[in-house]
């Protein structure tokens, strides 16, 4: 079940009824559960008559005429994702990266209760109307360090064919934290929304999502006579989130590098640009035995990629 930006368009108690509390039968694993909890938190924020008012705690009563979810006295801090590195995603396999965060809460907010859900997620676009969101597929593990503070570890899981909606996803993402205290609510047909507590916090930090890249190289002929011309070809490609295939990365500068046999250091010989298909081709003079490779430095949307050296025997 994916809610993405649809929650922000709904308000009032109707919003909460549209995103009824997730039961074990509804939740398709932790990924879907986190998505559902985030949806409830967003809808609860929309339903709250005074979201900026003083926090009332998880179990404060709301006016009977119009049940209003209560804001939890809970905040998120010290968020990290993937150790501060960009999240590089390909076309096939699920990419999982670690998250860590700290939760500070009031003494009457039991984050370890069985009917309490919390996590962090990434989104792009605006906070009120995100264009896409990413969640974890494991329930965060939290450890109390005091009566009011806990440190948590979870993940962000990106399934290319499910979570990504196109190449526009290769950009900067922001982080938010969410928590929902269901407070024993199990009547999905007529829940008491006034007993639901929620917290939704923006500006926790963020990360960049990049399109995975690949670089190949081939030096020929092999072997080659000393002083003769060596042709070095290659292909620079990157993941395309529109069709989940790899396509050539065009008009990109790539370094041709050489490592002499017996050495551990590569030296840049020249810089070559990819053509309109991502292909690379250049020629050099063969002088000594060694390894040739292409090395791409990367861009904001695409990580660096370096080919494994191709050994050439010079006769």
TrEMBL record:
Signal peptide residue numbers: 1-27
Keyword Signal: yes
Protein name: Calcium-binding protein
Keyword terms, alphabetized: Signal
């Amino acid at each position: 079940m994916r809610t993405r930006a649809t929650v922000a368009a709904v308000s009032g108690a109707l919003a909460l009824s549209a995103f009824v509390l997730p039961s074990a039968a509804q939740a398709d694993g932790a990924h879907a559960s986190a998505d559902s909890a985030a949806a409830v938190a967003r809808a609860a924020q929309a339903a709250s008559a005074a979201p900026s008012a003083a926090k009332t705690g998880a179990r404060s009563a709301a006016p009977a005429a119009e049940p209003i979810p209560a804001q939890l006295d809970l905040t998120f801090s010290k968020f990290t994702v993937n150790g501060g590195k960009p999240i590089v995603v390909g076309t096939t396999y699920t990419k999982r990266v670690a998250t860590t965060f700290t939760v500070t809460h009031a003494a009457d907010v039991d984050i370890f209760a069985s009917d309490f859900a919390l996590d962090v997620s990434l989104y792009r676009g605006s906070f009120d109307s995100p264009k896409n969101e990413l969640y974890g597929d494991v329930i965060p593990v939290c450890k109390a360090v005091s009566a009011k503070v806990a440190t948590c570890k979870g993940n962000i899981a990106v399934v290319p064919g499910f979570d990504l909606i196109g190449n526009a996803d290769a950009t900067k993402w922001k982080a938010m934290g969410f928590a929902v205290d269901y407070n024993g609510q199990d009547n999905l047909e007529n829940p008491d929304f006034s007993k639901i507590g929620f917290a939704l916090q923006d500006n926790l930090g963020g990360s960049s999502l990049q399109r995975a890249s690949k670089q190949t190289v081939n030096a020929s002929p092999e072997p080659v006579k000393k002083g003769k011309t060596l042709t070095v070809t290659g292909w620079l490609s990157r993941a395309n989130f529109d069709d989940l295939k790899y396509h050539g990365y065009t008009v990109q500068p790539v370094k041709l590098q050489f490592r002499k046999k017996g050495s551990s250091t590569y030296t840049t010989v020249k810089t070559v640009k990819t053509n309109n298909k991502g292909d690379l081709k250049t020629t050099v003079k063969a002088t000594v035995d060694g390894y040739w490779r292409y090395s791409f430095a990367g861009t904001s949307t695409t990580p660096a990629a370096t080919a494994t050296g191709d050994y050439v025997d010079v006769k």
